[in-house]
Specification:
The protein has a single domain, classed as predicted glycosyltransferase like domains (Thrombin, subunit H), CATH 2.40.10. The chain has one helix at residues 99-112; strands at 11-12, 18-20, 27-34, 38-43, 54-59, 69-81, 88-95. With 123 residues, the chain is mainly β. A six-stranded antiparallel beta barrel has the order 2-3-4-7-6-5. The relative contact order is 0.22. 11% of the residues lie in helices and 37% in strands.
Length: 123
C-alpha cells in the first residue's frame, strides 16, 4: 500500500466555514483547512470515501466582499474519527476547479487564514 503525500500548502482557517448540500441545505461539515487541491471537513457523521464527486456548497460570512456561497464539486478521498470522539474528519479533493471557486478560495485564505507570509532575505 502506498501513501499519497500532499504537495499543496494547507491553510488553517480562523473560522470554520460551513459546507452544505446545495439541494437540501443540510450541514455536511465545517472547513478545517483548505489548499488549492481540496479541503478537510469536520462533521457529525462519517464521510463516505471514494463514492465519486458530489456537489457541495461553501457558505461564506457576510462580512467578506463575496457572494453568500459558492457551489463546487469534490470527492471524499478519506474519512476517519476526529480527535473529538463525537466528530468525524474527511478529506475532499476538488473536481473541476472553476474560476469562481479559485477566486473564493484565494479570498478565504487571504482573509481567514492563520498563516503568516514567509519573508525571505533578498540575495
Amino acid at each position: 500500500m502506498t501513501v499519497e503525500r500532499r504537495k499543496a500548502t494547507r491553510h488553517s482557517l480562523v473560522q470554520y466555514l460551513q459546507v452544505c448540500d446545495p439541494d437540501s441545505q443540510d450541514l455536511l461539515g465545517r472547513v478545517v483547512d483548505v489548499s488549492d487541491g481540496g479541503m478537510m471537513l469536520v462533521g457529525d457523521n462519517p464521510y463516505e470515501p471514494e463514492t465519486g464527486p458530489q456537489r457541495l456548497r461553501l457558505m461564506l460570512p457576510s462580512y467578506l466582499d463575496a457572494p453568500e456561497y459558492v457551489d463546487f464539486e469534490a470527492e471524499c478521498r478519506w474519512s476517519g474519527p476526529d480527535i473529538n470522539d463525537d466528530l468525524f474528519d474527511g478529506g475532499f479533493q476538488f473536481v473541476g476547479m472553476t474560476e469562481d471557486l479559485k477566486d473564493t478560495l484565494d479570498l478565504v485564505v487571504d482573509q481567514l487564514s492563520f498563516d503568516q507570509p514567509i519573508v525571505e532575505d533578498a540575495v
